[in-house]
Design the sequence.
């Protein structure tokens, strides 16, 4: 078995923030880096910069100017068929196998502002995406293939995954219909929510802080939107104690509004 370090990060434009990405790779040394919201087409992706940073194997699902997901790795990647979660022509999911572990990198739709699918088609789209995740992963609940699901799920499912549970119950990302959908995915899919394996439910955990907050760190009005889940076959390979939210990477010059999240695990081969 090989020791692996896996990071998930909504980078909010990989080309704009490639210097930040390169710095993170040099400092934290992830073996597998899953990015969301890369905001570029495959041909525009900074492949050379990733190779120079030590992640020469890259798989991309890109889109012009928006969405998009990618995975960079120190080890060879086998591209897999991506589950059909998105009902629109949007690049929001990519699947690979690396070192015997299947990795799904997802960028779930944010859902707009109004948490009512009858008047907000963006929210309806989000709920459909989550429903398709539940259907796919529940069918694989007893799968012997180690599976790690990561990404910007755009849902903060627990009470202390948001700065104010009471005030955000009617705010998209923490409404009961969304949090219950994620709960079902975790339960029916047999997933461990790695962050909450390490940290008790009563502990506040955030991975996203709005750009609208000028002093985001002081106000600390965050949400835990970025996730790492392990299925039953993958959970024994993970080291929950190593789970980390790299909050410092939310600061500095031209940051993403998301912090990277990282876990150490063993290969399956």
Sequence:
């Amino acid at each position: 078995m090989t020791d692996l370090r896996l990071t998930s990060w909504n980078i909010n434009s990989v080309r704009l923030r490639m210097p930040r990405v390169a710095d993170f790779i040099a400092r934290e040394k992830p073996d597998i880096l899953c990015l969301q919201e890369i905001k570029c087409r495959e041909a525009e992706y900074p492949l050379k910069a990733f190779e120079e940073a030590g992640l020469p194997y890259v798989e991309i699902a890109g889109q012009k100017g928006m969405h998009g997901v990618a995975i960079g790795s120190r080890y060879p990647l086998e591209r897999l068929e991506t589950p059909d979660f998105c009902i629109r022509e949007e690049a929001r999911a990519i699947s690979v196998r690396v070192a015997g572990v299947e990795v799904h990198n997802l960028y779930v739709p944010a859902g707009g502002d109004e948490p009512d699918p009858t008047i907000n088609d963006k929210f309806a789209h989000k709920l459909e995406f989550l429903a398709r995740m539940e259907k796919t992963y529940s069918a694989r609940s007893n799968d012997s293939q180690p599976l790690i699901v990561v990404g910007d799920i755009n849902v903060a499912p627990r009470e202390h995954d948001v700065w104010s549970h009471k005030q955000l119950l009617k705010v998209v990302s923490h409404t009961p219909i969304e949090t219950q959908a994620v709960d079902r995915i975790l339960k029916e899919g047999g997933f461990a929510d790695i962050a909450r394996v390490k940290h008790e439910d009563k502990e506040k955990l955030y991975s996203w802080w709005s750009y609208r907050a000028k002093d985001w760190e002081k106000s600390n009005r965050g949400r835990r939107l970025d996730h790492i889940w392990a299925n039953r076959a993958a959970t024994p390979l993970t080291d929950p104690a190593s789970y980390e939210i790299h909050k410092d990477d939310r600061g500095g010059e031209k940051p993403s509004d998301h912090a990277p999240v990282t876990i150490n695990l063993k290969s399956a081969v």
User: Anything to note?
Assistant: The chain has a mean pLDDT of 98. The chain has one domain: 3-266.
